[in-house]
Amino acid sequence: MKADAIKLDGKKAGSVDLDDAIFGLEPRKDILHRVVRWQRNNAQAGTHEVLTRSEVSYSTKKIYRQKGTGGARHGSRKAPIFRKGGIYKGPTTRSHGHELTKKFRKLGLRHALSAKVAAGELVIVDDISIKDAKTSALAKQVGALGWKRALIIDGAQVDENFARAARNIETLDVLPSMGANVYDILRSDTLVLTKAGVEALEARLK
Fold this sequence. Notes:
6 strands; elongated
């Protein structure tokens, strides 16, 4: 599959051959859903916790006598039935993550890239290296190119000046090729790959 490449100023920069086994698949929502769910579950902190009956600060003394009061039988004020008592079956600190094989994760990334191609939301850029780390100048270029919420994936390392200039642009995310992931790709309106990024992704996903 051939795709046109451009420069940051919008001028043409030839074309790039894209591997059909990575960029030409029929996107499957079930595969993408499983990988995104795996990503988001692993990112969840899981630090939510409540005080149980054994942890709340109250005396364990029986609050009133067993019989003769006309009320229900009760023991400690720590019981979940009372206000500020222990919480019954509340959340505890745990990991929400689950396993997903490397093979399946690679498959998900292929389908995510193919989904962007199918939607016409993939842009190939020759190179993103710039001389000066000027946010205002880069913001003008991005605006002229029509990138609203864009994810830019470079090769093994991102150009330092470009990364510094893009740091304060809210609608721009920049990642090296090893940081490419299904969730960030799918949530972007435009996926921008450099030629080095394309080569690195193809080497990673073969």
